[in-house]
Design brief:
The chain has 146 residues and is mainly alpha-helical. It has a single domain, classed as Four Helix Bundle (Hemerythrin (Met), subunit A). Helices cover 76% and strands 0% of the residues. About 12% of the residues have low confidence.
Amino acid sequence: MSSLRRALLVMALLAVPGVAAAQGPGGGPFMGRNSVNYLIENREQLKLTADQAKKLEEIGQKLLEKNRPIFEQMQAMRPAGGFQGLSQEEREARRQAMAPLMEKLRANDEEAVKEALAVLSPEQQKVANQLLEERRGRMRNWRPGT
């Protein structure tokens, strides 16, 4: 991943906790945008049973709670005026400081996805993996303002 892409990704992800914090203690609309909740949003395509949907919702909620302190740490590291006022060196220093937090979020998401996939049938797992791969592709190609 290029440095520019990495910097854009970090800035985009840093904006998420800011928006979530602005939404109040409930976390706002972006706090729930993890892979497990994405699967729940696609319950029709996955043909989830009520029991499966409930289990995935529990896994998703557990992931949100696990990630909340990480999002709070990232928010605390975000400059008050945003990243526009920082020099390239300052942005890179922030990115490096946040890299372990980003990796922890990624690891938590992967762990939750494994747990969620275990709830699904083999056919549902194929559909879920396809949905998640498409989502990853969109996230890799995402650009601010698009």
